[in-house]
Amino acid sequence: MSKYYVRTNEGAYLKSHAEFTHYWTKKRDDAEQLSLMEAMKVMDHNKDKLKKGVELYIEAIDDEPVDEFDDVTHPAHYTQYSFEAIDIIDEVAPKYPVEVAMEIGNAIKYLLRAPFKGRLVQDLNKAVWYINRAIRNLETES
C-alpha cells in the first residue's frame, strides 16, 4: 500500500497526529507516513483550523522533497502548458461557491499535472475524489 505525507504550503510536514491534536515538523524525514485515506482525513479535519493562507497538500512518499526555489514556484509539471495551473485556478475557483472552491481548484491542479508526473491514473483519481467531495458539499448545503 502506498504511503503519503501531509504538508503545508509553508513547507511543514505532519509529524504525528491524534484524533484532535496535530504536530508539524520542517523535516520530511521526521514526518508521519499515512495511508491516502488517513491523509485525506487529516486534511479534512484541519481545513478550518489553519491560519489564513495556509493550505494542506498530500504528497506521495516517492515524490522527492523540493529544495530548489524554481521547483517551489514553477515546478516542471506545472509549466508544461503556455499557462500555469495556479493562473487557471485563481481565475476559475472563485466563480464557485466558497464551500467548494478549494475542491475545484485541487481537481483542476490534478487534471492539469496528471500527464506529467508519471502517475496518470492516481492523479486522475485524485481529481475525481475532489470533484465528488465538491458535489457532496453542495448537496449537504442545500
Q: Could you give a short account of the major beta sheet?
A: 2 strands, antiparallel
Query: How far apart, in Å, are the first and last alpha carbons?
Result: 37 Å
Order of helices and strands: EEEHEHHHH
State the helicity in percent bands. Answer: 40-55%
Quickly count the domains.
Answer: 2
What is the oligomer described by this structure? single chain
Please provide a written account of the structure:
- The protein has two domains: 63 residues, no CATH class; 69 residues.
- About 4% of the residues have low confidence.
- The chain has five helices and four strands; from the N terminus they run βββαβαααα.
- The N and C termini lie far apart (37 Å).
- Helix 3 packs antiparallel against helix 4 and helix 4 packs antiparallel against helix 5.
- By secondary structure, the chain is of the alpha+beta class.
- The protein is globular.
- The longest helix is centred in the last third of the chain and has 22 residues.
- The strands form two sheets. A two-stranded antiparallel ribbon has the order 1-4. Strands 2-3 form a two-stranded antiparallel sheet.
List keywords for this structure.
142 residues, alpha+beta, 2 domains, two-stranded antiparallel ribbon, 5 helices, 44% helix
